Amino acid sequence: MKSMYFDCFAGISGDMTLGALLDLGVPLAYLKEELKKLNLAGYQISVSTTRRMGIAGKKVQVKLDPHGHSHRSYRTIEALIRKSTLNAHIKELSSAIFYRLARAEAHVHQQKMADVHFHEVGAVDSIVDIVGSAICADYLEVEIFSSSALPLGSGFVKCEHGTFPVPAPATLELLKGVPVYASEATGELVTPTGAAIVTALVKTFGAPPPMTFARVGYGAGLRDIPVIPNLLRLMLGETRSVQADAQVWVLEANIDDMNPEWSGFLMERLFAAGALDVAFIPVFMKKNRPGSMLQVICDESHQPHLLNIIFRESTTAGVRYHRAARAVLQRSKGTLKTRFGTLKVKIFGSGVNAAVAPEFEECKRVALQKGVPLKEVYAEVLVAAQAGVSRISRRDS
Fold first, then answer.
1. All domains of the chain, ordered by start, with CATH?
2. How high is the pLDDT of residue 187?
């Protein structure tokens, strides 16, 4: 699977990300043509090669029309992306990044997301950096993103609202749950735009995953840093079918005073709202009372809504939650010819080591139609699969 690793030894910003992606081989002409689909005027992009402590990297600058408007609301930016003719994947990545920015700014300023005005973040150059990065990631067909821990700078930075400490409040909000460390370098190393990009794309933070690197790209920051080269390094390569340390959120609550009939309803609501898995685990609580531990696994984007559902639909007064690493086999869907006809199946892994699992609803349908036991349909799928995965017709999930 195509994988990209963010090596953020000098931090990350929007222009550094875009520069490194272009350095990986995305044609500048392609980027410019795709950006035209935004219907965003009043800017020009220039890309040059510069050196930081002798290492060459791409430096991106967005030159603005002096009569352009730099302040835009989240609602305006979201509409701009949605109404563009960019493909669905680029829109999804761009919207995810701006969603994180809007949520962070809304929290810092105690506003509704729709009313947030980004000021610097909403300027044309930052829109170009974010949507341009999404265009490049789509062009490179990256499936898995991972990153190093992020270095915290020091000092102060001038913003629209005044002089703020580094990291800026919005940046710090975006970095919740992300591993960071103190750096000898001073100044703003991680910008709000950079923090939004890396946290929207990346699920795993830490050492590089097991992968074979094919290309390395460098994006240059605007200034020189005395102690380290001010560059973002992106490593592009292939990983195995197991996604090492994929990051998920685990939500847990111990419950001993809820009507058991409500549990099934709660589970249905959680799955419908995007939970990856839901379980009720028998436990003994204080005073040796029997109860259940509700355990929900989800990705970051669904976590706030799932927390609300747990509080609304259960009797718990508190929920524990934490990030967890999860190793996941590559998954896909396919069809398999059996004596009951062509049936849908799930495929885990790839190549000769791929494992095939029956689709329950498909087997249930056949069992009812043919009047045979469900276990007989399951057995037929497994026997047919043992004849070789080459007989399976794969299709997109």
1. 2-240 (no CATH), 244-328 (3.30.70.1380), 331-395 (3.10.20)
2. 87
